[in-house]
Amino acid sequence: MRPVPTVAGDRSLPPPFDHPHASAEARAIAERGTVLRAQVGSGVHGTSVAGQDDRDEMGICLEPPEFVTGTARVPAGLSTTATVPFEQYHRHTAWDRPGGLVNRSGAGDLDVVVYSARKWARLALGGNPTVLLLLFVPDEEVVVRTEAGAELVAHADRFVSRLAADRFLGYLRAQRAAMTGARPGRAELVDAHGFDVKFAMHALRLGVQGAELLGTGRITLPVPEPDRAYLRRVRRGEVPLAEVVEAVEDAEARLLALRDSPAVPPLPDRAWVDGWLHRAHLAYWASLP
Questions:
Q1: Long-range CB pairs of 193-201, under 8 A, 24+ apart, other chains included
Q2: Is the pTM of this model over 0.85?
Q3: Are 38 and 224 in contact (CB under 8 A)?
């Protein structure tokens, strides 16, 4: 098991917004209880294109006891008396521009979500590729990592299973459908290249990272060469659609073969994850005033 250092970074999050998961109360819970937060977008994959990408961050936080053992809830935004269970603080700085929630993030924007540890664990145990990525971010891209977060990172292999294989396959297939027009893509990319090159890049990235996770229990970030250079070529529209489709089909075949390998456990280690949640929450609660 590799030693995982803690990172005492800035916990502050963008200010509250009138969104069901962006209340002031949700923000306070997320900031105070953060155990792990890092960049998870194209920048950490090594596939970003200068001047085009926003910054995506993801985090995990522990909740106060009344939200775990009681029935406490947070406001569903800023202009309502409705409440919701606390599951995450979710904020896009693009919302601050005229147009608000309908704005799509662009260069220079920050998109950040900090999940409750229980919700993150449910998603990770189900093999969700997006949330699993948080466990493999290089130290230099980590914003905050406490001892509890470091323990989780050190045991990333506990989440590897055939469930993860199925989820990587599902995400890959969804990106492939989007890139070829079965789902609407980004009009500006389709107009420029004939297909959505960003969806195409992500389909191939999922194939590369899913195969590494199932084969080794880890994901290397940024994506190692020569795959990274090829992904960047796809993203820039330098690879013909026919070649991209063939590469995605090959990646899908590799994932299918690994999923059925006896070396991949059928289920993740739920008992260890439950133990981590229990220990981490008790230690956090003991530290509260």
A1: 193/237, 194/241, 195/241, 195/244, 197/234, 197/235, 197/236, 197/237, 198/235, 199/175, 200/175, 200/176, 200/234, 200/235, 200/239, 200/241, 200/244, 200/248, 201/47, 201/231, 201/232, 201/234, 201/235
A2: yes
A3: no
Are 285 and 63 spatial neighbours (Cβ–Cβ below 8 Å)? no
Predicted pLDDT at 105:
85
Place of tokens 């299918």: 256
Token representation of residue 35: 């155990």
108-121: pLDDT as tens digits: 899 999 999 999 99
Transcribe 109-147 into DSSP letters: -EEEEEEEHHHHHHHHHTT-HHHHGGGG--GGGEEEE-H
Q: Beta strand 74-75 with 83-84: parallel, antiparallel or unpaired?
A: antiparallel
Cα–Cα dist 221/175, whole Å: 20
Distance from the Cα of residue 287 to its chain's centroid: 28
3-state secondary structure of 254: helix
Copy the structure tokens of residue 278: 């229990």
Report in angstroms the alpha-carbon separations of 50 from 32, 47, 240: 33, 10, 22
Q: What backbone phi and psi angles, to 5 degrees, belong to 283?
A: -65, -40
Q: Which residues pair with 91 in a beta bridge?
A: 112
The one-letter amino acid code at 127 reads G
